[in-house]
Amino acid sequence: MTIARTPYPRLRQMTQGWVTGMTRIGTQAQFYGKTLRSIGAAFVHYKAEMVRLIAQMSMGAGALAVIGGTTVIVGFLTLSTGALVAVQGYNQFANVGVEALTGFASAYFNVRLISPVVSGIGLAATIGAGATAQLGAMRINEEIDALEVMGIRSIAYLASTRVIAGVIVVIPLYCVAVLMSFLAARFGTTAIYGQSTGVYDHYFNTFLNPTDLIWSFFQAISMATVIMLVHTYYGFTASGGPAGVGEAVGRAVRTSLISAVFVVLFLSLAIYGQSGNFHLSG
Amino acid sequence: MVAVESDVAVLEGVEREQGYSPPLGHPDGCSDEPVAKARRRAYSSSVSKPVRAVGGFVAMSLDTLVSMFRPPFAWREFLLQSWFVARVSILPTIMLAIPFTVLLIFTFNILLVEFGAADFSGTGAAYGAVTQIGPIVTVLVVAGAGATAMCADLGARTIREELDALRVMGVNPIQALVVPRVLAATFVATLLSSVVILVGLVGSFLFSVFVQHVTPGSFVGGLTTITGVADVLISIVKAALFGLSAGLIACYKGISVGGGPAGVGNAVNETVVFTFMALFAINIIATAVGVQATL
């Protein structure tokens, strides 16, 4: 008696894994396309839900609202990195005797590098992970299926509205983030290390480039879009009970952090790659 | 309507969330009128919840610290968890370390080229990679990959009342589950920070030399100009501290979960937020101390 078995099991398994991976990329791309396409429908049909989400996202849900919500958290993160600029910049520059340039370091590194990256991290952790947790719980409780049964376009109602809300929320949020990083660097340098405020402000104002700031906003907005897309996808496709929701949140945070940093990197290369857009002599 | 439903679930979860510390009975007397009692309870829960959470966290940390030195050490669980955290973290580490360092070195080189000091880009790369990128990327990965998975796992066990079952069987969950996880996070974070630094240095070398045309010799020569052994040691200590706090926060959030799937999701979300905040705060203090120590 022979046992019926598939030929080349290992090869087959390998191909299977490869095919599954490619399929997952395909379904993700499809989901992102659908979400972006449904943005119009979300604007037409689900305005009330969108407004509710904007309010919820800027304040945060559950225990996060107790400590002041998303704004405070992102503000705190950039506050600490701004202070880091003061600590490291001042000490390193003082090593070679040019501590006056700390204001320049704040205007240059905060705008181009630190604020976009850190706000991206903050967004992924707060708004993004929150969205995955919510959507994942809805999926596990079969609420999303119920929506479909009731004839509500679930992707437009849940995913597109969240993407729009995230992009709208990120604009004031990023203002707070940038201001916090500037303030912290200035406070650390002038109040703690005792540099005169005139010197700091002079170099800061000389090297603060408004065009850079606008590009930095653009980076933040594109990052918010990518982060919200990734997080809604993982929430939408969560499975496997309570542990599955938690795992989906973790996986979403990982993926969105990586994609956010890559977005910042490629945008920086595109924006500053050719000329650098930086002039020491004014 | 759907969201309202889940919000109710969240609120229930919050009510039940104070599950870690052994219940000592509610401060309310039993003789009160029901309405006044409910109102007072709502008030006291909204005021005392954050305080209670902090207290519970401190209590669990102390318990963990004490249990670390009690004899039956869960070696098996420790090894399994270390392997687990390392496995989920290694790919995100590499994927995050490369863009971070390239971004840093790119921004830095614009500056150095303008100064006419592109030969010093190795100095900047080493300094950035060792003092900031190394610890920060480790933070992000340990919090985003390791801590979330840990919290989800512990949270699911709490929901299924497995921890209570352990207690009934006379096994201390802190000793059996929390201690090995916290130590595993610390251990793996320490190892990961060296991976990040290595990947970062190699990445910035390739990017500087092949894209921005810096001389390879001067890049390598500049590496050790201002970055010494002390900086590397501080960076590793920082990473260990990050791993420790991320592990503690994840375990606390995991064992104090309540309220079904939404509760676990929220706990993981809070784990990410609180670890990021704690880690950034630790980073600035550790950096200030480190700068004082090395200069």
Range of helix content of chain A: over 70%
**What's the oligomerization state?**
heterodimer
| Helical residues, percent of chain B | over 70%
Q: Tell me the total number of β-strands of chain A.
A: 0
- Give the N-terminus to C-terminus distance of chain A in angstroms: 87 Å
Q: Give the overall pLDDT of chain A as a whole number.
A: 84
Major pleated sheet of chain B? none
Q: Number of helix segments of chain B?
A: 9
Main beta sheet of chain A: strand number and arrangement? none
Give a written overview of the molecule:
The complex is a heterodimer of chains A (282) and B (295). With 282 residues, chain A is mostly helical. Helix content of chain A is 83%, strand content 0%. Chain A contains eleven helices and no strands. The model of chain A has no long low-confidence stretch (mean pLDDT 84). With 295 residues, chain B is mainly α. Helices cover 83% and strands 0% of the residues of chain B. Chain B has nine helices and no strands. The radius of gyration of chain B is 23 Å and the shape is elongated. The model of chain B is unreliable at 1-19 and 21-31 (pLDDT under 50). The interface between A and B is large, with 70 and 68 residues.
Feature tags:
heterodimer; A: 282 residues; mainly alpha; B: 295 residues; 9 helices; 0% strand; elongated; disordered N terminus
Question: How would you summarize what this structure contains?
Answer:
With 282 residues, chain A is mainly alpha-helical.
